[in-house]
Amino acid sequence: LGVRTNAVAPGLTATPMTMDESWNRILGEYAQRIPMRDPSTPEQQAAVICFLASDDASYVNGETVIVDGGLLTGMWYDPADAPAT
Predict the structure, then answer these.
(1) By the 8 A CB rule, do 73 and 35 touch?
(2) 45-61: per-residue pLDDT in tens?
(3) DSSP summary character for residue 72
């Protein structure tokens, strides 16, 4: 029928709610576990969605794209093991 079904699984995204002062402690610990070191922006999430909706992704179907800065693949990572900066 020509219908493509894809999904985006966003990770921590910097929004007014997630960047609220009360989230600071949680975010600090959480962000250390993200290999990219920062939450994504709404624009970064939207870029993936736009790609999936574009003709460039015309043969992509049935996929879930995880946009989490590597958090799931880096769950083994312990910030204590990070090299000194």
Answers:
(1) yes
(2) 999 999 999 999 999 99
(3) T
